[in-house]
């Protein structure tokens, strides 16, 4: 009799749990979904964003941030500031979090590297190497440049436009071939073409662990002051430090920003943490720090929006 009573009680408990699960309000499941925020980031910034997510989870476990996959709509977008969607319906605000530098490169020991060996290219020569144009006199033109194949990115998030604008050019005016997809594929393209030359962000051309230039790459020689040139032969950290103190015309440096929807308090709190704590990882992941006044202005912008919502 006791066994029958126990069995009936157990069945009653199971049925009760099943009924309870079926009657969970829809708002409960939507709350769980709404505790996830997604961030879109190009490859050069993704390791930094992943570090933010990892560290922020330790302080705010109630909301989860993830890297957006594919072409889905995201809650935040990180990238070159002038390419961000500030002013659109989805993203109505822009914050700067650092800067990225873009340097010209070839594959180590390639024919292109040999043709460019020993040359120290100024802005005018770099423009001649990478872009279409007939404004140079024949005696000024470098015949070796005509053999070299330029590879540039065609993706919307590519640094191609930043590199071009640094020399007063449009991204449609590059010589050579265009590569679809993330800019990291540019490294692959020149590895397959002995005459290939391209450009990329510091985080894509330096090994973030060893802090040295990736073994398969070579920097194109630039016409720089001696102290700057010496730093370019050193570690990633030396390059970052020198570029924070001087901006040579031969190096494209662009602000990196985050676009976001100001109506989401969880996003605003995350951004406040990024500006107060996350930017200390900039150097670790190949980004330059902002000028102090610019950085302070970004923090004030987020704090004022948080205060306005209270």
Question: How do the strands and helices of this protein lay out in sequence?
Answer:
Elements (H helix, E strand, L loop, with lengths): L1 H21 L3 H9 L1 E5 L5 H14 L4 E4 L8 E5 L12 E15 L3 H6 L6 H8 L12 H5 L1 E5 L6 H7 L10 E3 L4 H9 L3 E6 H4 L11 E3 L6 H7 L3 H10 L6 E9 L4 H12 L15 H17 L2
Parallel strand pairs: 1-2, 1-3, 5-6, 5-7
Antiparallel strand pairs: 3-9, 4-7, 4-8, 4-9
Helix pairs in contact: 12-13
List keywords for this structure.
single chain; 310 residues; alpha/beta; nine-stranded mixed β-sheet; 13 helices; elongated
Indicate the percent of residues in helices: 40-55%
Count up the helices.
13
Biggest sheet record: 9 strands, mixed
Cα-atom radius of gyration: 25 Å
Class derived from helix and strand content: alpha/beta
| Shape estimate | elongated
| Low confidence ranges | 2-33
Task: Count the E strands.
Answer: 9
What value does the average pLDDT take? 85
State the gist of this model.
This protein is of the alpha/beta class and 310 residues long. Helix content is 42%, strand content 18%.
